[in-house]
Amino acid sequence: MDTEVELLKAMVSALPDPVFVITESGYYAVIAGGQDSNYYHDGTHLAGLALHDVLEPEKADWFLAQVRQTLLEDGMRTVEYRLAAEEVDGIDGEAGPAGTIYFEGHIQPLNERWKGERAVVWLARNINRRHALEIRLRHMSETDALTGAYNRRKLMEEMDSRFAEFRRYGQSCALIMFDLDRFKEVNDRYGHGVGDEVLRRITGICRQQLREPDVFCRIGGEEFALLAPGTDLVAARQLGERLREAIADHEPDDEQPGRRVTVSVGVSAFMSGDTHMEAIMIRADNALYEAKRAGRNQVLAVEQG
Questions:
Q1: Which residues contact 266 (CB under 8 A, 6 or more apart)?
Q2: Cα 14 vs. chain centroid, distance in angstroms?
Q3: Which run of H or E residues covers position 41?
Q4: Active-site entry in 212, 222, 223, 290
Q5: In what helix (H) or strand (E) does residue 270 lie, and over which residues does it extend?
Q6: pLDDT digits (tens, 9 = 90+) for 141-157
Q7: Taking the complete model, does pTM exceed 0.85, yes or no?
Q8: 205-240 exposure pattern, b = at least 16 Cβ within 10 A, e = fewer
Q9: How far apart are CA 260 and CA 282, in angstroms?
Q10: Does residue 222 carry a catalytic annotation?
């Protein structure tokens, strides 16, 4: 029997991922496994301490809520969370991975009570690689490969979110759409390589004019859109004018002809009568083409639906 017990202890200690027994009142009862310092920090000193002894109150409250919810449901639950060594008192940050670790936690009620108290077994798995891959895949799915700007899919997601905020809270938001004037002539005369360089340069110019919440997208061949949260129609028109001027006034680094371009800009804002977000896009698109018909290289704003 002693041999079996020792073998069981050795097996638990050798688990690749750390395992915690956490009581319903929020104490670390047992800690084992997770000895690879490439993936985890040594948390064995936590045994006997409470969550609130070693974590900030908000984070400790979250962990304790997960423990109690698992006991309430009486079944295994899976949660994802992030935690850094500096967020846990007593952890040696240098003896383990640097920075924030993303975890997948598998929480299972313990069949036996720990010193008369209900408890869970919490297995924590390092999912940093998976998280990084998910971030990369999401970035690829919402980013234009040529310019690095967001794509139409991202614009529609953000429009949907902002329109919901507008309908519920009245949060102002504006949409600016612009199209490069006579861009086909650039491609036809100088080739698509030059045209691609122009598109990348335009993206760089626009990014210098943007604020943190602005969402800048390439939505077509030479068509771009800027979603500007917290911006009314007057301010959006001013922003559209700044973009137009910055693009028209920009001097290319080289002297190759044909690379200096202008844009026609259409502006609209969310309005109280809007019942769907497509209405905002239609107004901005109509204003854009009206700017083209009026002579190009100008900004037009739609003031009513």
A1: 176, 177, 178, 283, 284, 285, 286, 287, 288, 289, 290, 291, 299, 300, 301, 302
A2: 36
A3: none
A4: 222
A5: none
A6: 999 999 999 999 999 99
A7: no
A8: ebeebeeeebbbbbbeebbbbbbbbebebeebbebb
A9: 28
A10: yes
